[in-house]
Structure formats: structure tokens, C-alpha cells
Amino acid sequence: MSIVEDQYRQWLKEAVPSYLKEELLAIVNDASQIEDRFYQYLQFGTAGMRGVLGAGTNRMNIYTIRRAAYGLAQYIIENGEIAKQRGVVIAYDTRHFSKDFAIETALVLGALGVKVFVFSEARPTPELSFAVRYLNAFAGVVITASHNPKQYNGFKVYGEDGAQLTPSAIQTIIEKLEDIKNIFDIPTTPWHTLEQHQTVEWILHTIDQAYQDKLHGLKHRTNIDFTIPIVYSPLHGAGLVPVQQGLQAFGFTNVHIVEQQAVQDGNFPTVPYPNPEEAAAFTYAIQKGTETGAQILLATDPDADRLGVAVKTENGYQLLTGNQLGALILQYLLEAKKETNELPENGVMLKTIVTSELGAVIAKQYGIETVNTLTGFKYIAEKIAEYDQSMEKTYLFGYEESYGYLIQSFVRDKDAVQVALVVAEMVAYYATKQQTLLDVLDSLFNQYGYYHEALQSQTFEGITGQKEMQALLQNYRENRIFDIAGQKVLVVEDYLTQQANHQDGSITKLNLPKENVLKFILEDQSWVAIRPSGTEPKCKFYFGTVASTKEQAQLKLQQLQVAFMTK
User: How many CB atoms lie within 10 A of CB 377?
Assistant: First the structure.
């Protein structure tokens, strides 16, 4: 009998909940399903773990959650008694089983003597990051799968600085996980017992208020139109309370909530995917906007770390891309600081290597340095921590193309709540000048060039898919590309080897951590990047171009995509 079959038989014998038992019995004659569910444990990586809900070692369920919690507990215990007393803050979004998984995590941590603080209601990932710092906890956990489809959930771990846990700490946890002999033997202690021993504590309103106090400090201008109509949708997620309270505290008096999507529901019944990057997520917001004459539509994903924005036009509403919104926020922040002489000489803007170069040219205009990081906000948070220590640079703004932004560093992950408030202020400020965000964006394009970007994805499901994806990346490495769409490739940046291979044959070092990413930079400033997704079974292809007109940029982008994807 194989290891996979052994695992399956053990799960069948155990007294698992009926909903898991039914799944296990339903696949008794389905070898491929058994293989997929039991060929591995859900991988625990730098972003924690994420997967499909269901029975099996390769699924999200109370047992794989207990396993992850046990590994985290052992890591904390290894760091000493003070680390155990400082404890862990646990938050969760509105997905199926999110609160259940949060409680299971607490039961394991508490059983091993680790103090636990659990939010009594669903709250955003950025508020978890804030709470870890505010409570001086040793770690944090948020149960979320961010903007993934409804069948997913996840377990994301944060360090004492409120940022995603460092790779070395994650490696320690992985080693602890590998020591677990039987997933069903992981100890838990009943909630009432933990309460009696004051090992567990519910939290909510004190953290909410402290977070709101910090958000209020984001105000840059007060000479704005606070009566502009705004529509906000939490897409059935955890953003409703902090965003609504924040907009009210800022002074906005004409905010309309999309009622159908204010209902916290893990089925996300009104959207195909709860992802504010997708136009379909704005269908109900557009209806509300049309009814109310809203100037701006705001939408957050289930854990409110990503923000999508749509702007009113003569023909309806136009969605902004993550790159466009990032450039607009950066321009607004730098101009506001310049007006009040608060622009530091050592200021820095952080962005990822697959994010548009428009932000970099805007920053340069203000004398602000741009530092690139690998994809993932943990790398931006890492840089913020580095600058906090060295005082070498002053952090001003960080963002990535996938709708993630951070304005002030009292949070150490992307924060859609912060950004929702500042975007509302931007719209209200430009309204006093008879401008929309699209007008401002056009002025940036006219000044700096028309930057256009696109993203394509290929899905690689299961064991075979993962092998195919790795082979695809290796093929690009072994078969060098010299030109794309008639443009010479000047540099190939290989972040796995940490080398930049130049057209003339020279090689320079890339001073970023190792990651399975390739980036091709062309002679006309166009670029292509390829990377496997860290959270989904996909390979992502990023494209960027710049030209003197919108039409030229769009044509170049189309030609670049076709040429590369057919190579």
C-alpha cells in the first residue's frame, strides 16, 4: 500500500467531522482524487499556506490548520517564555470556516501555553498587522485566502513587526511541521479552559479605535469637497466596518454602501470572484453609483488588503488598473508633501519589479529614489524595517501592480483601508479644481509618456501542472531570447541565479533574494516578466510598454504580448 493510500485509510478510520467523512467516502473509488488530496501536505511557504477547503492533507481543514498552528507554537516556544507571554493575535475574514479555523488555531496555541488574542468579529488583514504591533505580540495569524475563489482559505503568519514572517522563521516552522508524526495527535485545549486560565482573550473595539486614530492621521488636505458622493463595496468581506468608520471620521457625508455586498457571506453570492481587480466585481457598485451620481466607486477584497477603484465618466464608470492608481496616489502624496515642505531629502518609494515604471519617473521628478523589490508585500515591509533600523531612507509610499498599496507604516502589509480614505480625499480635492482622477492620469501621461501594462496567466493544476510550469520556466532559461516584437533584448534578469545577463555577454549581480522569476528588458524600455504565482496554481506573464501617445503604447503592448506568447 502506498503512502498516499495509507494516509487516506487513516483519515477514513479517524473520527473526523461528518462533512469531511462524507467527502472521503465519496472518493473511495477515485484514485486521482485520493492522489490529489493526499500526495503531500499543503505547502507552507513564505506567505503561510493556502488551498482548497476539504478533506485530506492537501486541503484546508481543521487538521491541517492544527498542524500549522502547532508548527507556529513550537517556533514561539523555541524563542522563550517572554515570546509565549507576548503571544499571538488572530484575525479572520468572512470566508467559509474562517472563524472556526481561527478558534482551532487558538486551541492549539493555548494548549501549548502560548497567549492568544482573537478578534471577536471578522477584521481586515491590515488591522491584524496593526494589532500585532499595537499589542506588542510576538506573532500574528490571519485566516484568509484574500481574493481567491470561495472554495479557498488560508493561514497567513506575521512576525512581531507586523510584517509577514521572515523566510528564516518560516523555515523553522516548516522543520517543526516535518517533525509531526500524526496530525490527529496534535493537542488542543477547550476554549472555556483557556479562558479560565486567561490564556485566550477576545479583542475588538480597543483595537478598532486605535487603528482608526492612526487612519485619521492620513489626512493631507482639508480644503476639499466632503459632500462628493462615494460608493463603497466590501464584496461580502471584512472591510465594511473600518472603511465606513474611516470615511465618516475623515468628514465625508455622502457615502453609499452597496447593501447586497455588505452582507458577510463566504459564498460571495453577487460576484464570480471577490476580486476588485475584476470588472465583474463592480457590477452592483456601478448600479449604486448610477443611482447616486457617485464620483468614485471603491471596492475591497474579502480581507481588505486590496482596493479597486472606478471613476465616473460621461459614459459610465472606468476602472483604474493597479499601476494607474499607484501612480496617482504617489503623485498626490509627493505634491502634498512638497506644498508643505515635508518632502524629505532621503525619501524613498518602494515598488515591485513587475510594477509599472511610471511611478519611478514621477518619484524622480520630486527627487525621490525608487527601490525595487521582488513581488510580494513582505519584501516591501522588509525594506521599511531596514530603513527604520538604519535611518538611511525615509519611507513615503509602497505599492505593487496587483492593487496593493501602503501609505503609512503603522501597518506592515498592503492596506486597502488606508488607501480607500486617501483616494476619497484625492477625488474630493481634485473636484475643487474641476478635475477627475482620469484627468490627472492623462496629465501624468502627457508629462511622462504613456505607460501601459498587461497581465496574462496560464493555469497549471495538480502535480502534472506544477511540473509543466517548472519546465516552462526552465525552457526560457535554456533557450535564450534575443528579440521580441522586433526589439532587441538588452538584459535578461534571472532572479533564481541572481544574475542579469546583458546583450554584450557581460553579467552583473542582482541584489535581491532568490526567486523563480525572469524579466526581459528591451531596447525601447518595454519589458516582460514571468513568475509562478505564490498563491494560485498559475504562471503569470507581465508586460509593460511606454510610448509618446496612448495609441502607440497600446499597439506596442499588443504586439509585445502576441510576440512573446507565441515564442
Answer: 27
The C-alpha cell at 189 is: 485545549
Mean of the per-residue pLDDT values of the chain: 96
Entry field: residues in the chain? 567
Phi, psi of 355 (to 5 degrees): -95, 150
Quick check: 69 pLDDT over 80?
yes
> According to the model, what pLDDT value does residue 3 have?
87
137 Rama class: left (phi>0) / alpha (psi -120 to 50) / beta = beta
- Closest by alpha carbon to 332, among 229, 422, 453, 227? 422
Q: Tell me the C-alpha to C-alpha distance, in Å, between residue 250 and each of 40, 44, 262, 456.
A: 49, 40, 21, 38
Secondary structure string (H, E, C) spanning 344-410 = CCCEEEEEECCCCCHHHHHHHHCCCEEEEECCCHHHHHHHHHHHHHHCCCEEEEEEECCCEEECCCC
Task: Give the residue from 409, 425, 235, 438 showing the smallest Cα distance to 321.
Answer: 438
Q: Name, in order, each residue with C-beta under 8 angstroms of 393's C-beta and a sequence gap of 6 or more.
A: 346, 347, 348, 369, 371, 387
pLDDT single digits (tens) 256-297: 999 999 999 999 999 999 999 999 999 999 999 999 999 999
Contacting residues for 467 by C-beta, under 8 A, at least 6 apart: none
- Catalytic residue numbers? 146
Rounded CA separation 46/426 (Å): 34
The angle formed by the CA atoms of residues 352, 355 and 361, to the nearest 5 degrees, is 100
Scan for cell 478598532, then name that residue.
208
Give helix 125-134 / helix 205-216 axis angle, nearest 10°: 100
Q: Where are the alpha helices (DSSP H) in 274-351?
A: 283-292, 322-339
CA torsion, points 490, 493, 494, 498, in degrees to nearest 10? 130
Question: pTM score, two decimals?
Answer: 0.95
- pLDDT tens profile 174-200: 999 999 999 999 999 999 999 999 999
The residues pairing with 313 across neighbouring beta strands, listed in sequence order, are 316
